[in-house]
């Protein structure tokens, strides 16, 4: 079996950026992805608009041209797909990595299909696969979703949206405009400060006029087939409900990182151990790239500020 210079885990934008940088440096590499190409972006809401401008989502110095200043999900999917195909990146899709095992001065990477041998491994797996659970009765009912895709599905339904950041606000506005009766349940005192600046006034106005009901300093206590209990500052209330969108955020696959030998901080943030100058972890030859570097602080790293990880990693590998 050929020993690769680099095995890249994850074919999201940053994993692809690592592949482009590796190819440019003349290194042998393979990108392995458990789902489809840019799997996380594919699973974003259908009508999502990025916060960043198109040029800040570019990878490998390849121009990203969008119709508007801020691209939408289909444009991003098209861009990263064309980047992958036109550059003939070596990508293996729908192949989950199961283990990364030290093997002398290199690593054996076992997937559900085969095994690879590589001198270096880059983990660029993002954080979108594991939702932050509520741990309340009824959370596992079919009516509860931790992901939101298309507002039409919720037309003429009573919908509770849990959370007050971008995904929650988008879901509340879009389902409301498709005819849903929307109630937001928010732990904090108001809409999140990181909500897109052109959306924040919209949701606040809809709440002020009563089109969308919002309970602040509140949380859902229990979910049943046709109703939900909400603990508010005024006490416990029960409202009729058809669907719950528990958009409470997501987290990296920490068990996968620990299984690979990467140390995580013990402060609850679970920051992985790595050198910010090289992105190399405490495991020699294993690197982190992209939002996976942020632990539970998933709002720290984005495409625009982590695409530089690719160049840092490849420069360090070449220098060896």
UniProtKB/TrEMBL annotation:
InterPro entries: Bdr, FAD/NAD-bd_sf, Ferredoxin-NADP_redctase_2
Sorted UniProt keywords: Flavoprotein, Oxidoreductase
GO MF annotation terms: oxidoreductase activity
Pfam families per record: Pyr_redox_3
Record PANTHER family: THIOREDOXIN REDUCTASE 1-RELATED-RELATED
Protein name in the entry: YpdA family putative bacillithiol disulfide reductase
